[in-house]
Amino acid sequence: MTKWEYKFVWIDIHMNPVLTMARWGVSIPGEKKEREGKDNVERYASELGARGWELVNVISGSDQHGIITKGILFFKRPVGHEV
Predict the structure, then answer these.
(1) What's the rounded Cα separation, in Å, for the pair 4 and 40?
(2) How far apart are CA 6 and CA 8, in angstroms?
(3) Is 33 exposed, middle or buried (CB count within 10 Å of its CB: 0-12, 13-18, 19+)?
(4) What is the pLDDT confidence band of residue 29, given thresholds at 50, 70 and 90?
């Protein structure tokens, strides 16, 4: 039977509803500076994928106006699959 380990990553998404633009950021444990920008968040998720982590779910949170401002990314990988 496969045993799994899990990783949760919190991201901030700052949407501008007028310009339909977003500023994304992810805080990574052990890193001093937040990675900003959608491309950097995608790059980080790809780095996790290269280390065996699979994105299995995303939960978003919104403010009182219904604008998405947070997200939690859920990753899993088989135990012992460290790269």
Answers:
(1) 26
(2) 7
(3) exposed
(4) low
